[in-house]
Fold:
Amino acid sequence: MNIKDQYLAKVFEKVITRNPAESEFHQAVGEVLESLSPVIKRRPEMKELGIIERMIEPERSITFRVSWLDDKNRVRVNRGYRVQFNSAIGPYKGGLRFHPSVNLSIIKFLGFEQIFKNSLTGLPIGGGKGGADFDPKGLSDYEIMRFCQSYMTELSKHIGADTDVPAGDIGVGSREIGYLYGQYKRVKNEVTGALTGKDYAYGGSLVRPEATGYGLCYFVCEMLGAKGESFDGKRVVISGSGNVAIYAHEKAAELGAKIVAMSDSGGYIYDENGIDLEVVRYIKEKKRCRIFEYVNEVKRGEYHEGCRGIWQIPCDIALPCATQNELDAVSAKALVQNGCKYVAEGANMPSTPDAIKIFESAGICFGPAKAANAGGVATSALEMAQNSMRYTWGFEKVDAKLQEIMKNIYLNSANIAEDYGRAGDLVFGANVAGFLKVADAMLAHGVSY
Ligand code: NDP
Ligand code: 2IT
Structure:
């Protein structure tokens, strides 16, 4: 990390010593602190009143045992998490991740990023994240249901429509949200919007399934538009083949782009004719199988083992939509050498700090996750609004609001960057714009003695 300011460097040192073995959390904090030196010069009260020290400490971190019975009636035990990071501007809000790699560091990095992302949406939502070190792969629907029920039996004590509103993330989609919500309702005897990403039938918002991927493309449209360009005719590489990747593909293709590669955690597919999205959806959503089956289904294209090779494929636009640190310096160099001009992050923190530096020095237009993938949580906040009103809006209305929100996030980030003499630096602009709103709310609330 390159934190020039002495005070911020000290804060960062303390983050590392107080939270040992939390490398993802260190990385996420370091990326924000790198942007804040000019802010504390302009606003010294941020330093004097310990705003940054307060912001890097979660308001509350909960870990809990999740025991459940598999189909053979064997007892299984996982660890559940919910980190309620910051509620200065609204109830804690952020997804749940079910993946074997989940640990406190990953949940804290995600929760920390969520504070600034949620602030950028312009909607009243604080930051939080949760999950479990649970591997859903290969389990039956009943096993998933029993796990979700056990997880929610404990989580229900800590969440609520005005307190903390979880949603989906990796490994948590419509099926899991259904089981989680069913259990919440049973345990609490209340029908409120305590979760988002619900199906439309029981209070979900139209456009929420599509929102992160569509929102990412709306953000990229702003990046392209600023240079007089559009998606039309562009070659696009999208990593991942889950919720974010699928809807990013759908919208980019609708806007005239050709998507030539997608991936899962096993490897990637490359199809020069443009990937057939319906086949990917059939394999990943319906059959819950591996992406290599694509080549057999369509009888064209190539499959390659290992997901990092995807960044070696020449493209105009790269959209990493799988997971953290999936795009490193080697991949960034390959993208630059092959003529890629735009990179926007659908996943959370998918580019390593070294990769971002390479993009910056090559003049690549880079859309950071906090800004570029905020469409999902923004539409979750629209779901909360509809739930509070006990009313639903039509698809066009929600989609129009999403487009407006993504445009505002872009403009806000770009304008702040320009105001600080860093025109075009969306990483800086998004960090500072997201930070200022939360910091001002914390200043207004005072410190409790
Ligand atoms: P899904 O579970 O729907 O899909 C995840 C995809 O990423 C799958 O293709 C999966 O492959 C792949 N993947 C997961 N872990 C790894 C790994 N360790 N290495 C390589 N590939 C991996 O999740 P989402 O699409 O919802 O989430 C994708 C990213 O977007 C995450 O970073 C998430 O935090 C972020 N995000 C999600 C939002 C949402 O609304 N869902 C909102 C904003 C950001 P496989 O099938 O093999 O596991
Ligand atoms: O990373 C994210 O923004 C999400 N997983 C979505 C969170 C939400 O509350 O909709």
Summary: The pocket of (2Z)-2-iminopentanedioic acid (ligand 2) is lined by residues 93-95, 117, 167, 169, 196, 348, 376-377, 380 (CB under 6 Å). The first helix runs from residue 6 to 18. The radius of gyration is 21 Å. The mean pLDDT is 98.
